[in-house]
């Protein structure tokens, strides 16, 4: 890229003729506008000389099929893949999209939230494949910045009701919900384990980095897991669909559509409830809680999941009332 710098009363433009290792060329101009114009002209000439890589156009239907295949390889839920694929194909037929470049600003203006996310994912994947996309469409499809609302902590009655509702669909679904709400486990770690993870009253779960963490269970948890009759090499949680969950995101999606009554009752809210309760019972010993939940660093546990409660606030103020500082300032 041509660079512009001032040398005394003149402006110098420097560029290389043939890539980063080619001979350097220098030219001086009397004013800055002349130097800027020269730099633009040099860049235009260099761009015209660059070889253009011609990529074969991919039809919209083929793009959707490739996207579905990539999601399947990434372990996304089967139901989500099928629903998204059919929705994208219907949109392409309705608007007459033959290629990704055919998706224009007017086409995406009236789309709903779900279809906007699906089309945005398809167009981003098209860019990965080297396809041309309308320069304004992705900007129009970008979601507005989310308003940060206070994340209220679930109470014990609400958590008990949600876990019971999941258990009605299948005992394995209730067991997953119980473990998440009691120990703050990741759904992704739970859905992939088999019977060998349960060793007496201890449970061994995988971490994100490939390691494992092992911790003791409460008697009620041991009874729930043993009732499923887990065996080594056999998936521990075979849900109401008659098969093991493909991923934790598939379980979370099912939970949000079938179990949660509204916002603030998702899987992360169950984890937040469990971690906050564990911190209260461990006198805020984040290191011990992290060894149970599987967090590698207590800081992530505290910053993302832990929430304060009125009970903890009153406890802190009650402890302050007996200190010498409080007596001296009252």
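-> sequence recovered:
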């Amino acid at each position: 890229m041509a660079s512009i710098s001032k040398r005394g009363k003149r402006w110098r433009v420097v560029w290389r003729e043939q890539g980063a290792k080619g001979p350097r060329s220098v030219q001086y101009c009397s004013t800055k506008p002349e130097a800027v114009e020269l730099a633009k002209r040099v860049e235009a000439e260099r761009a015209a000389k660059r070889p253009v890589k011609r990529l074969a156009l991919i039809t919209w239907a083929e793009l959707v099929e490739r996207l579905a295949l990539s999601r399947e390889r990434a372990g996304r839920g089967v139901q989500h893949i099928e629903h998204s694929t059919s929705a994208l194909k219907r949109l392409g037929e309705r608007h007459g999209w033959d290629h990704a470049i055919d998706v224009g600003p007017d086409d995406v203006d009236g789309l709903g939230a779900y279809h906007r996310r699906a089309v945005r994912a398809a167009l981003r994947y098209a860019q990965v494949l080297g396809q041309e996309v309308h320069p304004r469409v992705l900007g129009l499809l970008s979601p507005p910045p989310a308003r940060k609302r206070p994340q209220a902590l679930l109470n014990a009655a609400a958590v008990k009701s949600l876990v019971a509702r999941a258990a009605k669909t299948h005992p394995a679904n209730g067991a997953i919900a119980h473990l998440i709400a009691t120990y703050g486990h990741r759904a992704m770690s739970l859905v992939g384990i088999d019977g060998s993870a349960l060793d007496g009253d201890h449970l061994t779960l995988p971490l994100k980095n490939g390691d494992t963490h092992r911790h003791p269970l409460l008697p009620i948890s041991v009874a729930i897991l043993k009732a499923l009759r887990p065996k080594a090499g056999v998936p521990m949680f075979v849900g109401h669909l008659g098969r093991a969950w493909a991923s934790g995101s598939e379980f979370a999606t099912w939970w949000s559509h079938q179990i949660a009554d509204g916002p603030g009752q998702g899987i992360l809210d169950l984890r937040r409830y469990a971690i906050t309760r564990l911190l209260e019972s461990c006198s805020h010993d984040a290191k011990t809680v992290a060894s149970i939940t599987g967090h590698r660093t207590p800081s992530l546990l505290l910053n993302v999941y832990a929430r304060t409660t009125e009970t903890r606030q009153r406890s802190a103020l009650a402890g302050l009332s007996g200190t010498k500082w409080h007596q001296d300032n009252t």
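Residues 32-49 form the longest helix (18 residues).
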